[in-house]
Design goal:
By secondary structure, this protein is an alpha/beta fold. It has one domain: 3-Layer(aba) Sandwich (Rossmann fold), CATH 3.40.50. It has 13 helices and 8 strands. Helix 4 links the parallel strand 5 and strand 6.
């Protein structure tokens, strides 16, 4: 399956406020280069905010949110490994993603507690893990990112096998649709609308990363016990219309963290950074401004 098209090929309406080429590339611990796209107020006195996308996405998932958050802050949106302009390796663990974001934070910061991180879905899980690997991270915002308690699962029965089978057939569209319907909870109508969006081909091109992330999110490094060790302040955001596992995981993690709060965005599901931009941005800014 082909890799996602680099940012230089993306139309402006997909890129949003981000440049066609990465502002910089940061080398992670294992040598993989992570592409960083800068936007927002570069001269801001506020800590820079690293934006971390979720499964199958890339930095452009923040194209609607970035103009709002960027009015007062310097934004650094990453392509996670295996996406867009970033590198990759054949071997994979979520710990590598923790190292990636820790490296980006260290490159952007000026010492302990000088960078904030916001992650969507799997990207929020990576942000939480990264805060355990560097003191540069000051605060974390995680949107529907929490691990589930033992005995619970985000996966409907048979989803892993269905995604694997689609990928083995080379059918990235089927793998992506299965993931979005089964885990994200998108309806048939919502999937049809998404297929008409200009980002759909990019999401299909990244479908090969779905299986490894579904498997990694149940690893010990990504679980409640590991991520409950996070000590920096954490804002956990959940949509009021999202599937129940997102709320269950969010509350379970909040109960275990040293310093956390939960905000529910009523009427939103797993894409509040697109559908409820004003409410989402207000929650983030209120938390980061403290």
């Amino acid at each position: 399956m082909t890799r996602p098209t680099p940012g230089a090929a993306l139309p402006a309406r997909v890129r949003g406020p981000f440049a066609a080429e990465p502002t910089r590339r940061v080398r992670s611990r294992d040598g993989v280069e992570i592409a960083v796209f800068e936007a927002g107020l570069r001269s801001s006195a506020e800590p820079p905010l690293v934006l971390v996308h979720g499964a199958t996405a890339d930095h452009t998932t923040f194209r609607a949110l970035a103009p709002v958050l960027g009015a007062r802050r310097r934004l650094l949106a990453v392509d996670r490994r295996g996406r867009g302009a970033s590198g990759d390796r054949a071997d994979y663990s979520i710990g590598q993603e923790y190292d990636d974001l820790a490296a980006v934070a260290d490159a952007a910061g000026s010492g302990p507690g000088t960078v904030d991180v916001l992650g969507h879905s799997y990207g929020g899980r990576c942000a939480l893990g990264a805060s355990l690997r560097t003191s540069t991270i000051r605060r974390v915002v995680a949107y529907e990112s929490a691990p589930l308690p033992a005995g619970s699962s985000y996966r409907p029965p048979g989803l892993l096998e269905e995604v694997r089978g689609a990928l083995e057939r080379g059918d990235g569209e089927a793998a992506l649709a299965t993931f979005l319907a089964g885990i994200v909870g998108m309806s048939a109508a919502e999937l049809d609308a998404y297929r008409a969006e200009p980002v759909w081909p990019m999401r299909v091109a990244a479908a090969y990363t779905i299986l490894r992330e579904i498997q990694a999110e149940t690893s010990d490094a990504a679980g409640l016990e590991a991520l409950s060790r996070v000590t920096v302040p954490v804002l956990l955001i959940v949509g009021g219309r999202s599937r129940s596992p997102f709320g269950i995981g969010t509350q379970a993690l909040a109960d275990r963290l040293a310093d956390s709060e939960v905000v529910t965005i009523e009427g939103a599901a797993h894409a509040a950074h697109h559908t409820h931009v004003a409410e989402f941005a207000a929650a983030v800014e209120g938390f980061l401004d403290r």
